């Protein structure tokens, strides 16, 4: 304890965030800050711990139990993610003499089975068709129509959709150019390794042409760039694609009866600002996962999907491919029958 320098929980978190700022993407930084926020709140409100020098292995275990049961019981995969982030945080604090040496080794994290570490939430092909058909009929070439169409047909991450400029759309070549431009506010997940050209169908190009010609606001962003998917004030916010997906993936939003028999007039989730609370709505990432699964189920080779979606084949197989084993077998049979 004599070798440690006193530090308050909130001060330690800010020190950690500043340390990681140049190492990870902004989205990762936000995730770490959110996960560690639970620990900081526990220190301050539950334990009234004002100096992290006093942290012990027992206290860390008490936090794990508290987090596991706080509000509603969290899933094992969520618990593992949060405890693993806490271990990284504690390991950093060891380097700045804020906690006892080797304390990070006492941060316990659950061991998960292979299937427990995989999320199953996805937009199915049937759901995607229903949403895009509705938008095409009643909200044609709207911002929501463009965002959902691009995410479904190109498998782009929401950050990549947001980063696109008018000049990144090559109408004659029927393609989009995805570029990493952190200096002007639009980084992409895998940085330069994520840069690529993405082919578009004639139908998607026609939709983009109509958006540009009739609906897109003629604006530039704060860096003087012309965002492809613009708002009246410039480039759309980073969370806008997620809000769009939550909103339009609700069955009641596209004229389908609520599977839970809820009355939209009485349902909190029927309001746009609470769309994420609808049990039937999905996140933006679920669109990408569903789109990848649909491409694979349509016999698009793994190598093509991997390059187009910018995800390693091993990661694709573990975290994105939701085909069952029988479907995979039947798809392999089509190739083997010709031998």
From TrEMBL:
Source organism, top-level taxon: Archaea
GO molecular function terms attached to this record: DNA binding
Pfam families, per the entry: Phage_integrase
Entry keyword set: DNA integration, DNA recombination, DNA-binding
GO biological process: DNA integration; DNA recombination
Residue span, Tyr recombinase domain: 118-333
Domain Core-binding (CB) span(s) in chain numbering: 7-94
Gene3D superfamilies for this protein: 1.10.150.130, Intergrase catalytic core
PANTHER family: INTEGRASE_RECOMBINASE PROTEIN MJ0367-RELATED (PTHR30349:SF41), PHAGE INTEGRASE-RELATED (PTHR30349)
Protein name, per record: Tyrosine-type recombinase/integrase
């Amino acid at each position: 304890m004599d070798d440690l320098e006193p530090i308050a929980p909130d001060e330690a978190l800010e020190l950690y965030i500043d340390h990681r700022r140049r190492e990870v993407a902004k989205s990762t930084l936000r995730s770490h800050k959110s996960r560690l926020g639970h620990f900081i709140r526990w220190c301050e409100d539950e334990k009234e711990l004002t100096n992290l020098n006093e942290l012990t292995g027992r206290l860390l275990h008490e936090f794990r139990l508290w987090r596991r049961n706080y509000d509603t019981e969290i899933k094992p995969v969520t618990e593992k993610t949060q405890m693993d982030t806490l271990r990284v945080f504690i390991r950093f604090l060891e380097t700045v003499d804020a906690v006892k040496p080797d304390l990070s080794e006492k941060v316990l994290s659950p061991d998960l089975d292979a299937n427990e570490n995989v999320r199953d939430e996805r937009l199915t092909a049937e759901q995607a068709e229903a949403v895009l058909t509705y938008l095409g009929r009643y909200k044609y070439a709207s911002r929501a129509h463009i965002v959902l169409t691009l995410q479904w047909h190109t498998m782009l991450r929401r950050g990549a959709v947001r980063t696109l400029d008018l000049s990144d759309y090559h109408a004659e070549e029927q393609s989009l150019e995805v570029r990493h431009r952190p200096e002007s506010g639009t980084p992409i997940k895998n940085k330069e390794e994520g840069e690529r050209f993405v082919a578009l169908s004639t139908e998607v190009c026609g939709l983009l042409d109509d958006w540009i010609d009739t609906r897109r606001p003629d604006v530039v962003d704060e860096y003087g760039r012309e965002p492809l998917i613009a708002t009246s004030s410039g480039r759309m916010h980073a969370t806008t694609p997620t809000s769009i997906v939550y909103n339009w993936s609700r069955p009641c939003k596209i004229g389908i009866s609520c599977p839970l028999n809820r009355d939209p007039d009485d349902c909190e989730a029927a309001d746009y600002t609470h769309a994420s609370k609808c049990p039937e709505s999905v996140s933006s990432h679920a669109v990408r996962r569903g789109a990848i699964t649909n491409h694979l189920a349509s016999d698009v080779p793994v190598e093509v999907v991997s390059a187009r979606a910018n995800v390693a084949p091993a990661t694709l197989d573990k975290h994105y491919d939701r085909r069952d084993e029988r479907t995979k077998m039947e798809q392999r049979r089509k190739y083997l029958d010709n031998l």
